[in-house]
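Hi, here's the filled form for the chain we discussed.

Project: internal
Contact: R.S.
Residues: 643
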Amino acid sequence: MKLTRLFSNRSSNTQKDDDLEVRLQMLADIKDPNVLLETAKFDTSPYVRMAAKKMITDKKLLAELQHTRENLSIDEVEKLNSTTLLGVVATCSESKYVRLAAVKKLNDKNLLVRIAQHDPDKFVRITAVRKVKDNSILALIARSDPHHEVRIAAIENIEDDQVLLEILKTEEHTDVRKIAVWQMKNPDILARIAEQDREEPVRHVAALKLGSSRLRKNKPETEAHATIVIAENGLIKNPVEAITDSDSGVDASEKETRNSTARTHAEYQQAENLSDNAPASENAGMPDSEGSTALNLQTIEIFTDKKLLAEIVRSSEPLPLRKAAVNKIDDISLLNDLLEKVKDEHVRYQLIRQKKFLELLHSTKKPAAASRARSMVTEQSVLEEVALNARDKKVRKATVEKLTNQAVLARMALHDPDAEVRNAAVWEITDEQILKQIASGSDDFSIRKTAIRKIHDAQFLISLAKRDKQIKIRQMALRRITDQQVLRAIIFDNVPDELKEEAIDRITDQQILAEIAQKTSHEFLRNLAVWSITDAEVLGDVAISAEELHVRKTAVSRVESEPVLNRIARQAQDPYVRKRAAEKITDQQILRELALSAPDMYVRKTAVEKLNDKEVLFQVIRDDQIDFVRNAAAERLNMLQQI
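And the returned structure, exactly as it came back:
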């Protein structure tokens, strides 16, 4: 009944964090489900209620609690500084939003790992994952989490290329695989992926990250590099390259035309895997045994009637035949009419290509240039038309992944109606100025995020992190910044706390972390900085000289180096911190020195209680000026003599 009384008749307005922590520790010892049920129903503290409810496993008892309310707001959670209470909320609250608020403030690494692996909500897991630094844990999450967004969050924190490569081999989701490749830095691994990976989008990302011209899509050597301007309406202004006169003679021009035609037929055969492209038989064009006319590539070459050719284009004849019919039409108005009526994207592609050929042909009266017009209708020029005008989003997306024209890609990224197509276009953009325009000017969060991943300009990223209206974009930009002084400046700047937390996660400079732990005005940030420090000497400095007791206590709890603990036990300004340091020491030589010469009598007493040297214990009994230190030495000596 003492335990029951402990969890009743308490006013939540007067409860202190320390009192609640003691009660929560005692709650863990309660085994009686009825006591837990009573506590979960009636305790005045929401933290104790939710912790008690979490401990109940009996379904009948849980049914009695289904209408109970936690009565804990996000604002209240954001004001918490107790690691224990934050841990209770993060693991026990039934509200994913309340858990999320607690996880954002939580800095207990073990608890964060547990939440990252087991919380039922993907957004809570993502927030926890972003605070986990252990590569082995991140790799485990990246391989096993059921939601691809959580796996992506884990991959974004992994820096080991071999781990990323192993993930790439087993991962099935294309977006996750693309992010894994984008995180890699080893050019040999990237080159192998760009050449051999099973997915085209992943190969593209590897080639883009590698930045190697041999792995990028080949651009025509004669392609003009005109200035790209994107108007507000999305139209592209790009000067058209003039058709130059050919220096070769008529024979060479005719040869080029024949070669172009041969390449066109070879493309048909390869793309469609035709089996009906053998030479025409003697009966080609004659009625077959059933009275119908045999139709193949050779017979279409004979036709000249435009209406008949148009009917073949609109018909359900095999695709290669319809394409061949398109190539026989020399009327631009008829091609425009067919473009209005034909829905098959493959035929539309060929219609656009033929139209461009005719436009080029009509633009010049010079025979040499005219004979080269078809060869000047490049695959890229037709792909651009298809990408901008195709009705089927799958066709537009597939076409975008083959484009090299940065202006067209920018227009697709900013103005295509489909999110997948926009995102695919951003992945293909290599011009950093266009990426910056998308990152700062687009209304689509998804493509802005993709653009930021590809930007390397540190000053632009800093500006975006400080000034963008969307907090998530600012966080994304901040994750791309590595300059330690810039990250330090953000901590002491007038920016939202979420950005400061993100900056601390990115800081590795131990002295900067120590400065934050001791000087920043925000208590939570000070504590978070301490948890990010890994250098024992720096932790020792914080434990000795930090102004706030909670920060000093956190620092000493993380120190494992016994020489540093010895220094803390002698020099720390707070008796609790000095005593806690002494309690962690096991080295007998250090304990002897503390027992004989530590200025703090509580440190001497703690050292005596762990000492095994009988001679030193005799010396303490004889020489120490404090009675309870001498008594502790005598008790320890008696215990050793009885062993």
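Let me know if anything looks off before we file it.
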